[in-house]
Structure formats: C-alpha cells, structure tokens
Amino acid sequence: MASASFYKFSLGFLLLIIFLSSFSLSASSDVSLSSTAYLPKLQAEKLIRELNLYPKDDINTPDHEPSFVGDKKIVEKRLIFPDELGVSGPSAQDLGHHAGMFYLFFESRSSKDDPVVIWLTGGPGCSSELALFYENGPFQITKNLSLVWNDYGWDRASNLLYVDQPIGTGFSYTSDESDIRHDEEGVSNDLYDFLQAFFKEHPQFVKNDFYITGESYAGHYIPAFAARVHQGNKAKEGIQINLKGFAIGNGLTNPEIQYRAYPDYSLDRGLIKNTDYDSITKLIPACEQGIKTCGTDGGNACVSSYIVCNQIFNRILGVAGNINYYDIRKKCVGNLCYDFSNMETFLNKKSVRDALGVGDIDFVSCSSKIYNAMLRDWMRNLEVGIPALLEDGIRVLVYAGEEDLICNWLGNSRWVHAMEWSGQKQFEASATVPFIVDSAQAGFMKSHGPLTFLKVQEAGHMVPMDQPKAALQMLRSWMQGKLTITETLYEVSPN
C-alpha cells in the first residue's frame, strides 16, 4: 500500500514543501522497547548528541494535518531565501531552487541538461539537510547563520534533489503512525512514488540521466531504491526514469562482511592491540549466526542480531577511548563529535520557516524513533540485489573515506570484492591505481565494467565535507563515464 500512502501525503501536506526530512519509521507493535530496543534507542540518542543535534521531538506525528490548497499530486513553491540570510552571488530565484513536498530541488548551476542526482542521508532517521548544508549542497551555513555559496556543491554538475526518508524527520511528518516504515520495501516504494510525482511536475527533466547517491545507512536505501526504479522501468510503470547508476558513500550494505571487518580495520589503524583483537574476534561467530537467523526469521531476530553484533563495535570503542568514530583522526570533545547545531537554529528562524512555507511543523534533525523502527532492517544484506543491476548495465560506485571507522573502507571493499556477478573475477584482478585531483593523489580506485570502488584519502565518514573538491570531481567524472581504469596513469580533467 506504499503508493496510496505516498499520495495521501502529497495531497494532504502542502506544508511539507521543504527540505523534506527522512521518511519515517517508528517502533512497531511487535518490537519491544524493553530489553531489546532500549539499548538501540540509547545508541540512537548518543548518535544525535554527538552530532550536536537536540530535536524537540523524536518524530513528527502532529495531531492534525495542515491545510492545503489545490488538487495536484505534488505541491511546491519557488524558494527565495530572505535577504537577511546573506546569500551572495547569483540569486536563488535565478538558479531555480524549488522547495517541495518531501524534497528540495536545486537546478544545476551549469546546465539544465545535466543529470538529475538524488541524495539520501542515512541514520537511519537523519534529515538530508545535514548533507545539504555541511557536505555537497549549494550553500553552507556560516557562524552568524548566513548562507554562502559552496564552490564544490554537487549542483555544479547536476540538478540536485534532496529527499529525506523515512517519514518523520526534518519537516516531514505523518498524522498516522501506520505510515511509518520498517523495511526497505516500504521506503523504496515511497521514494519511487515520490519520484513519479516529481517527474510529472517537472517533465523537462525526464529525459536527463538519473543517478541515486547517498551515504551511511543509505547503503541500505540506495540499492533497494535503485532496484525499485529499475523494476518500474522494466514493467513500464508510469514515467520511465532514465536510471544510469548509483553511488554509495561509506555505506552499510552487507553487515555480515562489514562487521567482521571491524577488528581488522581497528588493528591496522592502531585503535586496538593484538590482545584486544584476539578477544574481540571471538564475538564474530555469534554475530554471523545472528545475521543468518535474521535473514530467515526476520522480526525480533533482527533486533537481537543488531545487539549481538554491535558488541563488536562497542568493545572496540571501549579500548580506543574517546575517538570520533566518523573520523578517527579526531577526538570527541564533551560527547560532541561534530557541531551541526547551526542547522537547527537556522531552520527554526521565522524568516526561513516562512520562506519554506512549513508553518508550525517542527524540524526533527535525527529521529531516535525512526532509528528504532528500522532495527529489523539493519542486519539485512542489501548487496544481494546489486548484481542484477550490474548485469543490466547500471553503473555502481562505492566510495569510502579512509578515516571512518563506523562504515570503514575495508569492510566496504570486502563486500564489493565478494559480490558474485559476471565481472567478479575481472574486477578482483584489476589494478588498483591512484585517483588524481589537480595533479595530486586523492585516493585509490579499481574498476571493471560498470563497477568502481574508490578509497578517498584524508576523509572520514562524510567525504564531501572533508574532501569537497575530490568529491565533486568524483561525481562529475563518474557520471561522464571517466572514472574507469585505463592502461595509462589515471587522471581526469575536473571539467
């Protein structure tokens, strides 16, 4: 019933015209919030604190729906930021920014014929405004809460679409908790229905190439969404979407392989010692068995496997101390690994809320309730659907900052190499070559056919934030089909 659910939102929620915030998920009736889900809730709240985010509510479920006008499937308004926000350079109106239901859309600064790129933030349950203002969006927030242009915003190479999902974070919401999602089927169906409505409203972009991108828990969202789009195209459902590829940044995609890599990465980076390694690796068999049981039984077995497997991660943190597990080069000071608090302050300014048309809807940056709702999904292996997409020529880029622990490059590299598809042996045998940006090495990559893996140097969990120039060049080169290995030293032009 995902389709009906989406259209209820789009018809009834005019005030959702904003940077949509994560499609939701809340604890379901058969997932207890006692012994099993209580620990994950604490972990979700710790994650939110470490981003220096303190949302008023843990999910948006207002008692009533705001009023709306019209009968369109998707309602949007042209977004013009007020003068006090200090945006310099081209005007927001000139660049065709649109705030809309469940999304914020930025037309390319280069050409409207550029690809349409959708970005999904993970969490699960964190709003995509985090990426918009701190990673690859057109603007960045200054200390005095004004906006400045981001020289390396991904809108320099694409028509950029931010969508928050699942329902309940940011400014998105539902008045019916039965609309909250708990698995990738629900999330991907909602996203597919949204995309159909978006392209119906903006038919001039239907012909453009389309790419799906995102990071972290979007390592789950992205493959499921790509498969749903591809399925819709094959079945000739609705508008045909010109899907060319998808990119996962520091994602969680195949938990069994990635959790097994935690001790190896940590030992290699000096976070733990050999004696710690020997002790921690003894936890791996129980984790692997838990993941297998999750795969067959689902439900609470998946919640249990989450708790069992995260003992591996927590034991490493217990030894490593107060590190920032998104970037091991840094320490967490006072429980705050990053300070993203300006985003919440900015989005709660009356002038900004008026510009977005959100009325009295509260902004929920990261939702612990959504985090809990997705627990049965966490340990699922989303790599299984990728080989069929590769076989049909859909390009796949997996990239990872080398300084990230929580979704580290080693675990990502291992699942990419272990994935069974027709080009697996050729990919394994391909050379690892430097990724060059402005004549300097920015990472290492290997590829074969439609599959590319890239390790980015001097970057943590959020590659576009830590290495913005390299991230923009990566995106542009990949979409142009230039992020491939040749017999000569790899280097591409940033243009």
From TrEMBL:
<comment type="function">
    <text>Probable carboxypeptidase.</text>
</comment>
<dbReference type="GO" id="GO:0004185">
    <property type="term" value="F:serine-type carboxypeptidase activity"/>
</dbReference>
<dbReference type="GO" id="GO:0006508">
    <property type="term" value="P:proteolysis"/>
</dbReference>
<dbReference type="GO" id="GO:0005773">
    <property type="term" value="C:vacuole"/>
</dbReference>
<dbReference type="InterPro" id="IPR001563">
    <property type="entry name" value="Peptidase_S10"/>
</dbReference>
<comment type="similarity">
    <text>Belongs to the peptidase S10 family.</text>
</comment>
<keyword id="KW-0378">Hydrolase</keyword>
<keyword id="KW-0964">Secreted</keyword>
<protein>
    <recommendedName>
        <fullName>Carboxypeptidase</fullName>
        <ecNumber>3.4.16.-</ecNumber>
    </recommendedName>
</protein>
<dbReference type="InterPro" id="IPR029058">
    <property type="entry name" value="AB_hydrolase_fold"/>
</dbReference>
<dbReference type="GO" id="GO:0005576">
    <property type="term" value="C:extracellular region"/>
</dbReference>
<feature type="signal peptide">
    <location>
        <begin position="1"/>
        <end position="28"/>
    </location>
</feature>
<keyword id="KW-0121">Carboxypeptidase</keyword>
<keyword id="KW-0732">Signal</keyword>
<keyword id="KW-0645">Protease</keyword>
<dbReference type="InterPro" id="IPR018202">
    <property type="entry name" value="Ser_caboxypep_ser_AS"/>
</dbReference>
<dbReference type="Pfam" id="PF00450">
    <property type="entry name" value="Peptidase_S10"/>
</dbReference>
<keyword id="KW-0325">Glycoprotein</keyword>
<keyword id="KW-1015">Disulfide bond</keyword>
